[in-house]
User: Fold Sugar ABC transporter permease from Paractinoplanes toevensis.
Amino acid sequence: MRHGRWRFLLGALVPALVLHVVFVLSPYAQAFYLSLTDWTGVAGEAHFVGAGNYARLGGDSLFLDAVRNNAVMLVVVPVATIALGLGLASLLRTRRGSAGYQIVYFFPQLLSLVVIAVLWGFVYNPNTGLLNSGLRAVGLGGLTKSWLADPAFALAAVMAVLIWSSVGFYVVLFRAAIDAIPAELYEAALIDGAGSWTTFRRITVPLVRESVQVAFVYLGIAALDGFAVVQVMTVGPGGPDGATEVIGLSLYRNAFTYGKFGYASAMGVALFFATLTLAVLALRAGRNDRLELA
Assistant:
């Protein structure tokens, strides 16, 4: 019986482990190796350059612009999306017919990021776009701008699209978490005379903290990417003057435009460790919070 059980476990686990090694771990290993070479993507052999590619990253001004922009996105996109998602989910808790609102909020999730980027490109069009046309229609023509061509506003315009495309999903996620909170807590707060803001701050936020932490990890990963929206929407892409450059775009350009696959792999490895660090810190912070509450 014992041997039969081990044979069953091995038969179930080994195929999955082999597939994981071949299709997940092996590509990671290849990327790490290529980051230490000068492979061009088409050459039959690659020369080992050690940490040379990583040393070049520190002197690459365009890559540093990308790191700066991704850092800004890492702060703004998760915070704004979570704040909007929590606020809207809390409002829907007490509103009748909220299911219809959730469907409307969730609608952008049905569209791919490429489609969303194309649509918002039309919205931001300086001559015929919906945004500038709306400003002119209400007498605020002086506020119209070339949103994606102005270095001061291009990154904000891109982040607005990422937030708009994401917030609906997190409204649904947070609404489900809020529905799991016992109604007696809200009733007790109402009897004690707590207002809406106090109830939100003292009851809702602490009890949906785990959902917020998961949302921050996923949104942080999305903010460290941003490639699809920047590639489709922006001038260059990545412009103007590197104002919307992101690491994923730098990686793509160096690999498929300049044929520097080794250097691009170094960027990919740097992005991998940045994402891994974000996830570990967020999950560890959540674990510490749970231990303190316990």
